[in-house]
Amino acid sequence: MPRPTKQSPERGNARIRLLEAALDIIREKGFAATTIEDLCKAADVTKGAFFHHFGSKEALGVAAAEFWGETTSAYFAAAPYHGPSEPLARVLAYVAFRKAIIAGELQEFTCLVGTMAQEVFVSAPDIRDACGRSMFGHTATLEADIEMARRERGITATGWTAESLARHTQAVLQGGFILAKAANDPALARESLDHLERYIRYLFNVTEDD
Questions:
Q1: By three-state DSSP, how is residue 202 classified?
Q2: Closest-CA residue to 113 (of 17, 200, 177)
Q3: CA angle 115-165-174, nearest 5°?
């Protein structure tokens, strides 16, 4: 997904440049295939600078997940889907926004923490946990609007909660990214979000014309 413009080597410090490089390279190659040499070359820093800021590649992985969470939180906080006055409209606008930013090369719109979590959930629990904090931290930002929409529309059905639906949006997104990678086709990720929109409308008893 898009993220803030990179700092130039002259403006950014070595740590930030390494983290920015990690966001790009890991999404393209995966965590295991990304080497410290790759990161240093892309960031235009020495290995000494790398180890000054990160004690290991795994430490870089944790920091990259945290950096991803910080930068994407700011990106989504400023996104236009917060504009509608009705909470359900904001939820549907979120889905539409996520669909709209599926553009460019696969590595440009897929998720760093989703990519790393799939790779390292057993081998690097610290990175896995950092990825989880980022993912669940983002889903939590959707819960208030979902709960307000439930109350506003008198939805009393049991079996799902604002928290569980917020998590489901993340499951659909991550699954869509995987399908897009498997088929080398971003349209499959957009298709998944079309189904998510229909599902949300079904839960709230609204049609596409409402």
A1: helix
A2: 177
A3: 15
Side-chain half-sphere of 71: how many Cα atoms within 13 Å?
20
Cα separation, 94 vs 97, in Å, equals: 5
pTM over 0.85: yes
Q: How far apart are CA 183 and CA 103, in angstroms?
A: 15
Per-residue pLDDT of the chain (210 residues; tens, 9 = 90+): 555 445 444 445 999 999 999 999 999 999 999 999 999 999 999 999 999 999 999 999 999 999 999 999 999 999 999 999 999 999 999 999 999 999 999 999 999 999 999 999 999 999 999 999 999 999 999 999 999 999 999 999 889 999 999 999 999 999 999 999 999 999 999 999 999 999 999 999 997 766
In sequence order, the 6+-apart residues with CB closer than 8 A to the CB of 174 are 111, 114
d(C-alpha 196, C-alpha 168), whole Å:
9
- Is 76 in contact with 55 (CB distance < 8 Å)? no
Using a 10 angstrom Cβ sphere, with 0-12 exposed, 13-18 middle and 19 or more buried, the burial of residue 89 is middle
CA distance 73 to 75: 5
In whole angstroms, give the CA distance from residue 128 to residue 50. 21
